[in-house]
Request: fold
Amino acid sequence: MKKIIVLLGLVLLISPAAVHAQTGQVKGELTYIKGKPVLRVWGTHYEMGYAHGYLLAPEIVAMLEDYMLGRLLDKRNYWRTRNLLNWYTRIPQAYRREIQGLYDGMVGAIGKEGLYSETIDDHFKPVDLLAFNMIPEIFRLHFNSQDFFATPSELCSSISGWGDGTADGNLIFARNLDFGEPGDLLEASTLIIAYQHRESRTREKSWVSIAWPGYLGCLTGMNENGAGAGLNLGNEQPALNQLLFNLGGIYLGLPFYYTSTAFALRQSIENSPSLLFPDPIGAFRTNLGIINIAGSFDIHLFSPAGKGGFRLHPPAAILECSNRGTVLRTAADNRNDDPKLLSNHYLAVTNHHRKLAHPIDCRRYESMVQDLNATPVLDMERAFAIERKVAMDKRPYNTVYMVGFIPDTLEMWLATAQGAVPSYRAEPSYFSWNEIFGN
Reply:
């Protein structure tokens, strides 16, 4: 609790002025726009990680100590959990370097002694940062706090509309990210991260992520070309013995590794579209279809609707994926099962498969379909109203933030909790792309 108070105190002390790192040493800055913290980082992946760690070291330690260990994971099995993650996780080397940079930046800001954990009686290391970034996959290991996940999943929801479903044809995307409980550290730490691939020799795209201190994967994000995604957990979660062989308490894997879905999603966003995959939705499907997935996810993919160019797929789709396979659900599938979504220009998703597995009843999906069927023209105000009806503010799940994107114009709306006012009741703040990136 002490670190939560310190974190909130830091927010009050440094808002709204920007915190700039030492010129030439740390390539990043922490600023506040319309009351929302924005972390801007640039350079190589290592340099971006270093700036992230340097500017937010105390907040990252709080996320590891007070949230990951204090709230989320079963401390008795933490060593086992992080070792399995370290042994059987493969992420692109660029992000391994970014995690190392994150760790080095934290050490540079507060020293190794500042990374000491009372919970594990040791100093945090890069593997602990990996464990925090693998939270979506940790659900599959069943070593988490059982009281937190004892109830059926009610996590995340999103909708999109485009073409004849919107006034100007531009695509509208809105989503709730649900996790944790009201007033916890996760809710208090929502962060906009602007990744700027300037000074980099790669062709990677700059992109914006809605995340938390220390989180590098993509749960909700959009790049400079308007390609983006929102990741939801699915409902076909494999048990640990479905992923690894248990030989007398020693787990062996075939295949010998699994890939972080959030990092694979980030890699797709940073590289989509490309000359090889000019269709963003097709690129997402290809990139995520070739990895070994350790869980179950329903990923809402989106891209600009009003721009020309090569396109084999509609501008939005749902990628349903698990260790069983990957399938793309589009608006053409809207009427295959009840409840039927009548429009060919709307999509809705919760955390339940509807094509990869037989659909199950979901009150939130039914609510969104009913509202979309009664919506002749979708705009952002209406999209947020639909999402508000399925938001949550009771333990064990909470709507941490609500976010909306218009990829055609690179606009974003973000609503976070304001004191006692939950995120879904707070007025969303509007951001242009230039505001986020300081151009």
In short: Confidence is low (pLDDT under 50) at residues 1-17, 142-152. The first strand starts at residue 19 and ends at 20. The CA atoms of residues 217 and 356 lie 24 Å apart.
